[in-house]
Amino acid sequence: MIDLHTHSNFSDGTESPTTLLNKAMAHGIKTLALTDHDTVAGWDEAVAHLRPGLQLVLGSEISCQTHDGISVHMLGLLFDRANPELMEMMANTRENRFTRMSKIIEKLNAAQYEITLDDVLAELSEGATLGRPHLADALVTKGYMKSRDQVFAEILHNDSPFYVSHYSPTPIEAIAKIKAAGGVAVMAHPMSSLRSRVVSPDIFAEYVAAGLDGIEVFHRDHSATNRDLLLAIASELDLVVTGSSDYHGNGKLNQLGENVTEPAEFEKLELRANERRVVTATKK
Questions:
Q1: What pTM was estimated for this model as a whole?
Q2: Range of the domain at 126
Q3: pLDDT in tens, 182-211
Q4: CB of 272 within 8 A of CB of 184?
Q5: Same domain, 72 and 199
Q6: Could you give the 3-state DSSP secondary structure of residue 6?
Q7: Which residues neighbour 223 within 8 Å (Cβ) at sequence distance 6 or greater?
């Protein structure tokens, strides 16, 4: 099995990269991508604890926003992290998350939620990328709600009065940086209306012209209708079709390997990178 979209506690997952790799092996996964939000901070631990029998695809889920304010997540895979422009773009996005979080907290305080930035930071692992899931965890810790899912359903969804937009590159900018770093760009859950507004199907041709390599078609937030639409788009535009769990550990219902990528599709994707960067363990 090939699962090309997972998160560790270096972003908004709940498990360390080591635990994530061990769980993947227990689930029969042979190729796993670590794609924490806007960071490569978990890569070294993952590589250090990789065992024979599992291939590791290193990447990041990059937060993007279209000019009309639609949130897009772009999976950058198999890129060279020595590329300064890509690393700078992700660093700028991470830095802006603190400003955004402070503004959300101000809104919550005005609504009588007693929460501080320190409360939120207490939920982060060292080096992790700050995000709304950590605020949700802090609200659970403070006893306001029972689960992260409940917090998002009731007060932290994108249509909530507490929502605050944030700096993000455009999808085309992100694709360009990923490709310049020798990697491949796959658009994550592009038709997930559960998250926010979705992009128009007409936009994919523009993204392909910018270098888009694939679409994450098989994802739990896609309806059967949307999967069929995305498969048709992928066929028309010669895009690689991927499937992934978007696993976050205990933070979400997603389970490792619940959606997977076909080996032939992964082979096509890997060939689009400028060199082979899939990591395998050295047998001792």
A1: 0.84
A2: 94-156
A3: 999 999 999 886 555 677 888 999 999 999
A4: yes
A5: yes
A6: strand
A7: 191
